[in-house]
Structures are given as C-alpha cells and as structure tokens.
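Incident log, support desk, overnight shift.

02:14 A customer reports that sequence design results differ from what the structure should imply. Their input is reproduced verbatim below. On-call engineer (initials T.W.) acknowledged and began investigating.
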C-alpha cells in the first residue's frame, strides 16, 4: 500500500524541449487573449505602409483576414510555403500578375511592425457598419484565391464589402482624382495642341485625317478638364 501511494505521488519531470513548447504555447495564448481584449471580432483594422494603407478584418484569437497580392499560389502548390508571411517580392509580383488571396495571418504578420488603427472608416463611410459576427463571417466566406486589381479590387474594397456592404476604396478614388488633375487639365490640353501642330509641321503632313487627329486629342483633353 505504501509503495502504491509513493508511485502515485511521484511526478515525471517534463524534458527541456517540452517545457519550452509549453512556455511558447502559453505565451501565444496570452497574446491571443490580449488581442481579444484590444479588438472585437469583426473590427476593421488599418495599418499604414510606405506607399499605401493596408486593411484587414479581425476574426478573434489574434487572427486577421486580409486581401493581399501574392504570386506564390501560381508558382507553387506547397501549402506550407504559401502560408508563410508574404514578402515584398511576392507582393510586387502578385500586383503585376493580378493574383491575390484572402488569407488569415497573425496580428503581428498583418501589422508588420506598424501601428494599428481600429475602425477608422466608421466616421468616413455613410453606410452603417454591420454586426461584428456578420462582418467576420463575410470575411471567412471569401477566404481563398481572388483576382487582384490595384485600382478596382484591393484590400480596401474587400474590407469595405465585409463591414459596410459596399465595394469601394477611398485610396483609389483619391489616386484617380489626383491623376485626373495632373493629366486632364487645360495646361496639358494647350501643350498637346502645340505639340500636335509642331509634329504636323515637322512631318509636313496636311491630310484630313492627321489634322483631325491633331485637333481631336487636345479638344477631348480640354473638354475633360
């Protein structure tokens, strides 16, 4: 009886590797709990990048769904490589090939060291935000490969649809507005007309079609301005 009591009371010490794994697991759980205190499921997260702003939807448990261009699904079927953090090279090639995916990453990988802003669009968008659970479910349904377009369907279009039910991008609108101001202006129309006249004189072309083309292009720019 004493032997049985002694055997049952003794505990086997875990190995150093097991201890390290347990500590890592506990740390991850603490971080997830910490993020759940900071964010709510369905929150729209915004992080500033060098040339643009990136957006995602918080799913809970330290996970973020976001739409990002990525070349890897085209060149490889290895899920382990695809699930790794997207590098700048993968991102750039994804933009050029218009290939992207809605994926789930940790908050750290999503933020990439930048400060996270919570629900910044609530004050800018005229549409009311949907319920958090509905927003998260919409994001989860869209997980997978999706055709990417820098202007017409990017990460902002994705989160705007999930949270507000409308597909739009303030970044795209501002970019197009700036380009329009630069290209479709009266000054550009005048310069285009002058260049067209100089080109006709230099080439010594005076037929109807060339003159019409030289007049039509500056005229269209002038009217568009």
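02:41 Re-run completed on a clean worker. Output:
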């Amino acid at each position: 009886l004493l032997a049985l009591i002694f055997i049952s009371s003794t505990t086997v010490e875990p190995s150093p590797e097991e201890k390290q794994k347990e500590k890592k697991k506990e740390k991850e759980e603490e971080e997830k709990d910490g993020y759940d205190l900071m964010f709510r499921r369905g929150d729209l997260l915004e992080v500033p990048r060098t040339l643009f702003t990136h957006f995602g939807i918080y799913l809970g448990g330290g996970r973020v769904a976001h739409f990002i261009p990525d070349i890897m699904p085209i060149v490889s079927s290895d899920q382990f490589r695809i699930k790794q953090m997207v590098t700048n090279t993968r991102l750039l090639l994804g933009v050029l090939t218009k290939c992207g995916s809605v994926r789930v990453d940790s908050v750290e990988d999503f933020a990439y060291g930048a400060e996270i802003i919570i629900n910044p669009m609530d004050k800018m968008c005229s549409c009311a935000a949907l319920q958090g659970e509905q927003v998260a479910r919409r994001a989860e349904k869209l997980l997978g490969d999706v055709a990417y377009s820098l202007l017409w369907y990017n990460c902002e279009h994705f989160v705007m649809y999930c949270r507000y039910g409308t597909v739009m991008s303030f970044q795209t609108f501002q970019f197009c507005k700036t380009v329009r101001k630069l290209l479709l202006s009266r000054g550009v129309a005048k310069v285009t007309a002058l260049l067209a006249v100089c080109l006709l004189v230099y080439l010594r072309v005076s037929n109807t079609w060339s003159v019409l083309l030289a007049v039509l292009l500056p005229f269209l720019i002038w009217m568009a301005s």
